[in-house]
Amino acid sequence: MKARSEWISAAAAGEAALPAMARLRGWLRPILAVALKDLRIERRSKEVINAAFSFALVVLLLFSFAFDPSAEETRTLSGGLLWVVYSFCGALALNRGFARETQHDCLDALTASPASGSAIFLGKALANAVLLLALEVATLPIFTVFYNVRWEAGFWWLALVFPLATWGFTVVGTMFSILTVNVQLRELMLPLLVFPITVPVLMAAVELTTTVFSGQPLAEDWAWLRLLIGFDVIFTTLSAALAEVVLVG
Amino acid sequence: MSALLEARGVWKYFGAFAALRTVDLEIAAGSTLALLGPNGAGKTTLLRILAALSRPSRGTVTLAGGDLRAARRRIGVLGHGIAIYDELTAQENLQFFATLYDLAGPEELISRWIEQVGLARARHLPARQFSRGMRQRLAIARAFLHEPEILLLDEPFTALDDRAAALLSGLIEQAGAAGRTVVISTHQLREALALATDVAVLDRGRMAFCGPNNDEVRAAPEAFYRKHTEAAA
User: Fold this and answer.
1) Which of A154, A223, A226, B160 is positioned for an S-S bond with A212, CB 3.0–4.6 A?
2) Do A112 and B92 touch (CB under 8 A)?
3) How would you class B149 by CB atoms within 10 Å of its CB: exposed for 0-12, middle for 13-18, buried for 19 or more?
4) What is the pLDDT of residue B231?
5) Which residues of A touch B126 (CB under 8 A)?
6) HSE (CB half, 13 Å, CA atoms) of A79?
7) Contact with chain B for residue A47, Cβ under 8 A
8) Is there a contact between A40 and B52 if contact means CB atoms under 8 Å apart?
9) pLDDT tens digits for range B68-97
10) What is the ipTM of this complex?
């Protein structure tokens, strides 16, 4: 049985934890509100999904003609091909993600609200990541058929790599889409800024995906996985910390 | 009366261009300030700084002596854009902002504002189906929803239809009567002076005049305006 002093200290810790929980809830609320708002708008307009899915389908089809799906080399290129498609679809999606906020100066209303810059940024990034992941999930079976790859044995690896790589790409992309929100030719500028910085994420994603598609063990690829996790942690922290400065010009 | 919102020595540069130069402004609690000036005088830039949407390049802006950005829950902004999402319904637009402001009893508040701006029958329609006047009224509801202590209105009467203009005038009067602080940036002298207790005139980024809206101002507003702006030079 607990001693009386233990009960008292446990109760005190609970009371101290309450404001911390309330603060956490207060921080999470606008993140979820922004993300759900973006996803709801996308569900109705289908602006990003339609454009990105059509693009992915066409590119996958063209690649399948360009490469012989039965050849073993194709399997070694498969991760690269897939992530080329995903990264270009990502750029397409990110371009629209923040353009929506400028349409009626909605970004001003968001920035003027009590939601912190980091919450607005993370909400936008979360919505973009969910959209891209949905696109990846929808196109992976098509890719599997076109390129005759097998990944069932590495399913859990893909379930880990895809969200990590998508989040890394989205975090950088969302940050730059805020930075370029008022820039002329932003649709050209955004990929030019995002792709060089996301090279480590894309390299790691390509390596890990190719290993899974080739049916090889992933024992030697831990370094790529650590790179993905490290990139996500560093760029999420950095972007969230800088979002307020970037949003309030 | 003590200053609620205070700007001290504010400069704002866009590249090498100084949009605001040494602007000092004290806005008393409960006052209604008409911020006047020709195009390019820096009214919108100043209003954006007062709304914590932009940082001054030099100088400080405080709300009740404290950090303005930390106190933005107390501020309501109605800018040039309506800040409404076309794909969301009127109800969803207000619900979204109510969540951002963490309002208590949001459903009741949203219903009250939707009624007040005359959108009760259209509350579940997407805003893209709204007429221009309906969108403007929804934007007004969005700006007033959290019942801000300070209202910053940038050219609020521009392009408003008659119904929305009457609604906004009424709300500004009510806000003034309730002791709220209102700043209206506008070209429309007579409308603004009819509501204002104080007047500030910006000209080429400098504060040309700041004082009470007294009989002298009200008697000949155009002459007063010309006297303090570049047009007189």
Assistant:
1) A154
2) no
3) buried
4) 52
5) 44
6) 21
7) no
8) no
9) 988 999 999 998 889 999 999 999 999 999
10) 0.89
